[in-house]
Amino acid sequence: MECLICRSETGHDCLAFCGAVICSDCEVRLMEQTADEPGYENQVQAFRQLWQKQLLAARDRHLGDGDCM
Ligand SMILES: [Zn+2]
Fold first, then answer.
1. 4 CA distance to ligand 1 centroid (A)?
2. Which residues surround ligand 1, an ion (CB under 5 A)?
3. For 9-65, how does the pLDDT look when each residue is reduced to its tens digit (9 = 90+)?
């Protein structure tokens, strides 16, 4: 799988949710980052897109077989 944020290959220690993964590096960055830092907006955007995708998918399936909600 590739990291949602930095697109690098992720290992076993990655954070996985809703069919996407975030590598440990990005996970740490996200946890420590504040909105003032450069790059934050990009990461928020990546999350927004993922959430929107998941939301639309869930709606299309009528909240059927989702494995993350
Ligand atoms: Zn990453």
1. 7
2. 3, 5-6, 23, 26
3. 887 777 777 678 888 888 888 777 677 777 777 877 887 887 778 777 877 876 555
